[in-house]
User: Fold these one by one.
Assistant:
Number 1:
Amino acid sequence: MKHAEEFQELWESLVPDGGQAATVQGELIRSVGRLRDEAERNGNANWDEGYELFCDFIEITFRPLRMADPHARERIEVILNRMRQPNIAYLDYALFDELEDYAVDWCKSHPEPIPKPNDPRQYR
């Protein structure tokens, strides 16, 4: 992972101690981090709609990037498709690393905070 330190710094500065982030940048970092945490700590045993919503949010946020960069589009699609298979104790850390790098790059290319309304469906 080329942006491990930056990911952690973004987490600390953008993600609240509990609940959803107030910005798209913060929620992107939170979504990627929560997916990794669930896989590492629980082998996706708690996978439910909340984790599907994280995948949906990531997909929507990255949609313009995926349109601009065919390689990124393909990689993000592969990663999210794998993560949406919760029956597998999904622990391919390299794919989580790659997704975190995409998230850091996205945040760097969007430095101005983008407000994000609260999603009442997201309880994770």
Number 2:
Amino acid sequence: MAVLLLTRSADLHETVVALCAAAGVEADVGADPSLALGSWSGADLVLVGADVAGEVTALSPPRRGGVHVVGSSVGEGVFRYAVGLGAASVVDLPEGSPWLADALADVGERASPGRVVGVVGGSGGAGATTLACALAQWHATRGPTLLVDADPLGPGVDRLLGLEGRGGVRWEGLADTVGRLGARALREGVPCEGALGVLTWSGFRRRLDVPAARRMLDAAVRGHELVVLDLARHGGPALVELVERCDDLLVVTPATVPGVAATARLVADLRCADRAGLVVRPGGLSDADAARVTGVPVVATLGEQRGLAASVDRGLGPLTRRGPLARAARDLLDAA
């Protein structure tokens, strides 16, 4: 059973069941809370009608996530019952119908959040976007993956993957929306090929703000096994927000004096040395030198890949079956 609705209100019953039907999820409606509580723990989502919220609270059901109190013109007493139930929210209908529809659309999605891997270049031209694309391509053969272009001044990850002509929502479209973003809506709305979805930009006027970044990432981790963030070096507050949410942060640097020096400054600015890993590109310095200067351990050394530019120009993306990028993607994602 997906959704448990407890209510005696015919209007509430009709409204919620219609939303469930539109979302394609099964609803079990109980008019007697004492009889319906047997399904309390097994439902993916529990909706407690404001008309029976007091009765349900008096029954002291076990605390669990995914409980919401729903009703029309709810009063202050309902909020007290919601606190007693440990409810995540009180949804006033019909105003809250769009939010509830998004929540219902997520029913049956991942029970635990997906992994978030951030990739940022320690210096300009380090190859962070190429590595981010390779990681996403590699994991997409195994499960739902979202590649997020969080660099407003970058080339556009859709172009590197040959997806620039695909229809779908871009960052500009998300910025024009408000409220909760559904995981399924995001996964099915972005340009995609197979299990790989891409969230990128549609024009040249690009700006990533914190609210949009937060809403996107909340939905992304609910709907994907892996979310790869191609991060900007100079992203302001939005960069800090996204970096804080990363399970793994990969900093790409060329093993050159200027590259490592710039990387050390970025790491110090982000205060991420304790949870970042260094991916080193060819240069005159050793891995030990790069780690010592930046204070970040080396987790991978990435050699030059022959035919990379030609593969990207042909719309195939940077990843090939064999080569440094494929090996690095496999090792980096399997390491955690």
